[in-house]
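A protein record in our archive is deliberately plain, so that people and models can read it alike. The tokens are whole numbers drawn from a learned vocabulary of local backbone shapes. For reference, a complete record is included directly beneath this paragraph.
>
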Amino acid sequence: MGNSTLLLACDVGGTNTSVALVRNEGRRFLILRRFRFSTQELASLEEALFHVRDELDEDGRRDLLPRALCISGAGPVRRNTCHLTNVPWTIEGDSIAEALALPVRVINDFTAISYGIPLLDTEDTTKLGMLAPAATPPPEPEGTVRAVVGAGTGLGVGYVIDHHREYLALPSEGGHAPFAPYDERSRNLLASISRRESASPGAESFVSGRGIGNILEFFRETGRIGRESTLLRDIKPDSDTARTVSDAAHAGDPLAVEIMEFFVENYARVAAGVALHFLPLGGLYLAGGIVTKNEHWFTAKERFLKAFRISYRPNIQTLLQRIPVYVVRDYEVSLYGAAYGALLLLKEKTA
């Protein structure tokens, strides 16, 4: 394959669809060109991909033509096809491959994030922020596990393993695992949400944008919204609740601050559960828009870290202290991960 390989990476989101031409050299991935589209304005994903193909063809440079494409989407993937959760599209990798005359792989969005995590420079603070360093030296690369927990519209969980000098990302639906309340207030929140759900709510109902809305509704049920907060009193049910609460917290509204602090504690307890399932001694990574836009609430008074390390067993507390915790600040981590997926596909095709 030579020392340098060009790859096409695509990340399909509910708001934006991003496509990048990426150069791979060893374990380095460099974005050469970037294209962004409004997902809602596209008739299909193919419309965006054909536009990118035509743009690259117009350059007239054979050395800028990609050799493989990987597409990440939020939804289940089976037989190289993804049924998107928040967009009325079905991404059919095989038909796109035929249309573009290019090998195509379709992966889940958290598989892409998981692949992208180990490609980020842990020393670059624009890419990663550290909430907690490891209490012991890092493990040997072979077999090292990294896990990612990402709260946005929903809650995603993924993990990736160093395996024979490559990375192996494995699927998980940990975002829908049961939520374990940890004190009286969280037990009351669970009861509040359970009254509105058709079945026992999972972690996503507590740790996501919807989770912030559920905490707000819980406070509303107790009569605290109108009594203690003017900024939150008039929120409409169809508004962007998570953003409104976050903005109010940054503006100093005391009840909004309490909601964000409660949310961070819930996030930490869910993350601790993920950590104990996967033992990610290579790092636990917090991804998604909520944490990057609200990092202050995670770091202030070491709120996340203290809740993350709580355990009824001292030896488990010691184990959790061995796990470094990072905040993913690089929004292009999914594109790096999709590029890595394209590289793996190309290696399979040329093996």
Summary: The first strand starts at residue 5 and ends at 12.
